[in-house]
Amino acid sequence: MRKDQSLLVALVGVVLMIVSSDVNAQEALPARTTLSRSDAVYTIPETGYAVLKRGPIEAVIVDNRAVDDAVLPKHRAGYHGVASLKHRDLDFNLFVPSYSGLNFEHIHDGTTLASNILFEPRQAPMQLRKINDYTAELYQHPTPHWGLESCLRYELLESGAIEVTFECIPRRDTFKNGYIGLFWASYIDAPANLGIHYPGKPKGAAASANSEWIRGVSPKHGELSTHLSVGDRREFKHDPDFPLKLVFSESASNYTAPWYFGQSGRKVFLQTFRAQDGVRFSQSPSGGGGGNPAWDFQWFVPDYKVGQRYQLVMRASYFTTVGLDELQIQDRAVNVARAAQLGLGDKVAVATEHFPLRSAWDKLQKGGRIVCLGDSVTGVYYHTGGQRAYTDMLGLALQKSAPLANFKMINAGISGNTTVNGLERLDRDVLSQKPDLVTVMFGLNDMTRIPPEQYRANLMTIIRRCWETGSDVLLSTPNNVINTGGRPSKKLEEYCEIIRDVGRTLSVPVADCYAQMEVLRAKDPIAWRLLLSDEIHPNLDGHKRMGEILAQAISGKTVGLDDVQPPLPSMGRIAESVKAGRVVKVLAMTPLDLEIKTLLLKQFPTAKLEIVTWNVADRSLAQLEQEAKDKVRALRPDLVILGVPRTAKFNSHEEFVRSYSWIMNWSLSFGTREWECVVVHPSVTDPDHPDPEHDGLVRQLVRAQDLTLVDRKAGDSRTVAELLSEVIRP
């Protein structure tokens, strides 16, 4: 397994886990199994096993009786837990068929005892309890020698992970060395790679040393077999000839995050633990027979008390590696493990610094997918011209960074959405696309109706669920806004700080659009204002800036998008209507109504035209804004021709910008563009009365709206019809 220290530090960080001697204080334990919940309802399958199916995973939970049927052929007695684990993309069992995985193997106290006592969980009767279609438990009465009562709960989660909860109560004072030692084994069916992989350090390395990928593999059974966390200084007394060799044979390295994975062909089995449980990783190259390794873990309960309940919780994840190279497998394992850590309630290891998403960017250049999740700022709406948004601008910026890259951009923004809505449609709109990277930008609606703590929790859940599928995540703060009573800037800053804090907490990079646009506002308020289409929505120029910021966070490169021009209008809709014999409806400001009629009839001689005249004489900008609101969307035309005259009065620079922007906004459909809109510069119809200040501002506003502008350059004496025909053509 190749080491990549800088990447591992960026994604995993270094966790110095201090193992508490006060394991599972009684008052802190929730009731999670039928051992602690007297009101639990369950059935007892006569077969001795239960088949659980959810998402891509099928898991068969079995008790410790022998089974030999079509579901579990030749399954041996004593091996319980997950007898079969299959993924729908690779329909064969991960585990040795006659054995099992996540099998409760040993109870011990470090003293030398007979094999049947050390393997007592195999021998003592178990009762299989099926809780529901996704959950089954293995209950064991106090065992004959140790007197340990226990219950193992296997719950197949929506993500496909198996959450394993173990609860036990020592009923007798039988553990001579004062601690309870417990051991679980998973017997893997003939993987090419016998070892396990985890983030860690060589034993004795300095606390400041970076984590690296450790490949844990024993030379033989019982040698260098167990891996402790960097903070585990516990010593458990044991006999020199203690026969369970794996338990106390420590390796030469320590893990820095509480998870490890092993790879078997095109599948990965990953086990994640809570830091508080102080689990130790163990492995054997031949535990399941020659060529069949055991990927194990063990848990100690020090200073136990008779009658007290103790609890261990972990997650096992199983995913395929089809189409992934070695680095991508590592990256996916990191994300799946981090998702499990969040699901277990653990803090995710904090990175020492944020790096660009280098590994995600490497994947994307080879044909990956980016899904941008958010609200109306993310989606394609009128404020950017109804054809493109920052998702598209991000794609253009990344293409500039890597011209040969082959990736797909997917827009998953919906107007009015909050993080609550984002969670509701995450599977449908995002995860179903199998993205390599998900960008997440919410806040402008959340600040109006989602409390801060719920907003924080929702962001963390979105991240966790993306990680569960192996997707990387890039958080983004929203753009800054014109301060209003409904969305005060001070409150928006509070929500942006939550995004940054979630990024710091979970080691997720943050593209800070808000902060960078605040820098521009302070430096050049007028330039900043011209990035907005209204009080809260950026126009396409604003979306270009956001695309640049997100692209830099992904690729680590700085690129500019100032050269991106609006697309030419498409006359395809009009051509289709003419061909079908439908009436073509055109709304045009005077005097362009006559010009456009002549031009369209010249291009489409058989067209049935309905020209709706929009009289703009003696109108102010504010009046034209109101008329645009009242007329256009109600009319649903095929084409809108805007030609705001220089004579339209206004009271201030801000009113000019606002009203002109809204004339264009209201002249477009609400969402994706449903009809064409073309803006004609005043110089086209009135070349003799230039207004340098506002003529230039019109050009900037129209371009920022991603609309086509019919313009007249200095010295150009062509007619209005000739200038229009350059843009409006089949």
Radius of gyration (Å): 33 Å
The fold-level CATH name of the largest domain is Beta-galactosidase, Chain A, domain 5
Strands in their spatial order, largest beta sheet = 4-9-17-16-12-13-10-11
Alpha-beta content class: alpha/beta
Number of strands: 28
Given the C-alpha coordinates, what overall shape results? elongated
Percent helix among the residues?
25-40%
Number of helices: 22
CATH-level-2 architecture of the largest domain: Distorted Sandwich
**Distance between the ends:** 58 Å
Beta-strand level of the residues, as a percent range? 15-25%
Polypeptide structure, described:
This protein is of the alpha/beta class and 730 residues long. The chain folds into three domains: 5-343, Beta-galactosidase, Chain A, domain 5, CATH 2.70.98; 358-555, 3-Layer(aba) Sandwich (Rossmann fold); 572-727, Rossmann fold. Helices cover 29% and strands 24% of the residues. It contains 22 helices and 28 strands. The protein has an eight-stranded mixed sheet. β12 (226-229), α4 (245-248) and β13 form a beta-alpha-beta unit. α7 packs across α15 (540-555), α11 (452-468) runs parallel beside α12 (489-506) and α19 packs parallel to α21 (692-704). The longest helix has 18 residues, at 326-343. It starts with a helix and ends with a helix. The relative contact order is 0.08. Residues 1-22 and 350-356 have low confidence and may be disordered.
